[in-house]
Design goal:
Layout: E1 13-14, E2 19-20, E3 25-26, E4 31-33, E5 36-38, E6 43-44, E7 49-51, E8 54-56, E9 61-62, E10 67-70, E11 84-86, E12 91-92, E13 97-99, E14 108-110, E15 115-116, E16 121-122, E17 127-128, E18 133-134, E19 139-140, E20 145-146, E21 151-152, E22 157-158, E23 163-164, E24 169-170, E25 175-176, E26 184-187, E27 191-195, H1 197-202, H2 207-222, H3 227-238, H4 242-253, H5 262-270, H6 273-276
Parallel strand pairs: 1-4, 2-5, 3-6, 4-7, 5-8, 6-9, 7-10, 8-11, 9-12, 10-13, 11-14, 12-15, 13-16, 14-17, 15-18, 16-19, 17-20, 18-21, 19-22, 20-23, 21-24, 22-25, 24-26
Antiparallel strand pairs: 26-27
Helix pairs in contact: 2-3, 3-4
């Protein structure tokens, strides 16, 4: 590809295997290494490093010093081939890192219209939906799944193989080792704090849907029922509403168990063998 000085800075290094749309902009000292495909309107800013196999759609913005497609941070597969696939109009700000998949997994996948702020991290084999936001230094471990419109606040951590549900907000500094159900606010350590009302309204959900979600979480949080019983009751009373069917399915399909409220967590501690023996 001939260097177009109006679009590609002369200090940029572009691998012959790369396929760039005619209007892609590449900044100073950027590196595009291996089979990288960039669609129309993409911007690769100064010192960004893209490593193929990487396939990105249109309008993606790769920020200063971001690294996309480097090796998985994995003790077994650190150098094995993998890939990253991205949709359209994603924004990766300064220092964002996205690692390629391992051989036994699918590609590391990003949907469209995601906004990843400075120094946030997406590990190998992860899947992001659409319209997700990662604030500064948010990080997700390998094989995590982040559903549409999830919001990870600054310095949050998601353990590997966990899932964050649709329109769920993880509060600043929180850490989750269980699945975060849809429409919730998660704080502290695996703790449901309430319903993400602002996120629901911004996502355009109808009043009947929002009210149903609030009723469902009142049952889940305040009924005193165990999770299975609470979910059965929620389905009986509200399961005809689409967002409640989504919530019920999510909880039942969870492989790691869902985050709990403070009261449920305290009750679980009180029923532990060590406490029962006191």
């Amino acid at each position: 590809m001939p260097a177009d000085r109006e679009r590609i800075h002369p200090t940029a290094i572009i691998d012959p295997q790369a396929e760039l749309a005619d209007d892609v902009i590449v900044g100073a000292f950027a590196i595009i290494e291996g089979p990288v495909r960039l669609g129309r309107g993409c911007i690769v800013r100064s010192r960004a490093h893209l490593i193929g196999p990487l396939d990105a759609g249109i309008g993606n913005d790769f920020g200063i010093n971001c690294v996309v497609g480097d090796r998985a941070q994995h003790l077994v597969y650190p150098d094995d081939p993998g890939s990253v696939e991205m949709g359209d109009f994603n924004v990766l700000r300064e220092g964002v890192t996205i690692h390629r998949s391992t051989p036994e997994g699918h590609a590391t996948l990003l949907g469209s219209h995601n906004y990843l702020m400075a120094n946030s991290h997406v590990a190998h084999d992860c899947t992001l939906g659409d319209h997700c936001i990662f604030a500064n230094s948010a990080a997700i471990g390998g094989h995590s799944v982040i559903d549409d419109r999830a919001f990870l606040s600054g310095c949050t951590g998601v353990h590997q193989f966990c899932r964050v549900g649709r329109i769920t907000m993880i509060s600043a500094g929180a850490a989750i080792m269980s699945d975060a159900p849809p429409f919730a606010i998660i704080e502290g350590r695996n703790t449901i704090a309430g319903v993400n009302l602002i996120g629901l309204r911004r996502a355009g959900l109808a009043s009947v849907q929002i009210n149903a979600i609030r009723r469902a979480y009142r049952v889940l949080i305040h009924s005193g029922l165990i999770v299975k019983q609470a979910v059965d009751r929620i389905e009986r009373e509200l399961g005809h509403i689409d967002v409640i069917a989504e919530l019920v399915t999510y909880i039942r399909e969870s492989k790691r168990g869902i985050c709990l409220t403070r009261a449920r967590r305290a009750a679980a501690r009180d029923m532990s063998p060590g406490n029962l023996g006191r």
